[in-house]
């Protein structure tokens, strides 16, 4: 059995590399692991949205069906670029995906906020949403 993957095992790329892969014919897909609320406000075109965490009254809770949901629409050989709002949730999601046997996952450094800051599209999240969605380990 392969060794358990850790955050330092995840390939991280910047938003420029991510955009290049997404618009090329390389077959990469963007997996947005932000909450449905975040995704509905603004997102990268053609993104898949499967939340890694949910916002509950008790705070953030990991989506217990995350891996099953990803596996239901993506095969383990698919090339995925994983992003959230700033890079924390997507890094953890990449670790889980690698440990589940997904072979080609990359974390988008800086997340959707960096994507917007780089002028690619979309709107920055409101301050209220940033506070509500701040990751708590």
UniProtKB/TrEMBL annotation:
- Could you tell me which residue ranges the Rhodanese domain spans? 24-124
Report what the protein is called: Rhodanese domain-containing protein
Q: Please provide, alphabetically and separated by semicolons, the GO molecular function terms listed in this UniProt record.
A: catalytic activity
* PROSITE patterns the UniProt entry points to: RHODANESE_3
Q: Name one Pfam family in it.
A: Rhodanese
């Amino acid at each position: 059995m392969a060794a358990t993957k850790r955050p330092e095992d995840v390939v991280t790329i910047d938003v420029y590399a991510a955009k290049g892969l997404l618009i090329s014919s390389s077959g990469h897909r963007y997996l947005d692991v932000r909450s449905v609320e975040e995704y509905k406000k603004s997102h990268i075109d053609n993104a898949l949205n499967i939340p890694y965490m949910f916002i509950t009254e008790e705070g953030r809770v990991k989506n217990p069906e995350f891996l099953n949901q990803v596996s239901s629409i993506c095969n383990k050989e698919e090339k995925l670029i994983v992003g959230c709002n700033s890079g924390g949730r997507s890094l953890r999601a990449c670790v889980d995906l690698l440990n589940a046997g997904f072979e080609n996952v990359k974390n988008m450094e800086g997340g959707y906020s960096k994507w917007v800051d780089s002028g690619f599209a979309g709107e920055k999240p409101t301050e209220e949403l940033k506070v509500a969605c701040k990751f708590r380990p």
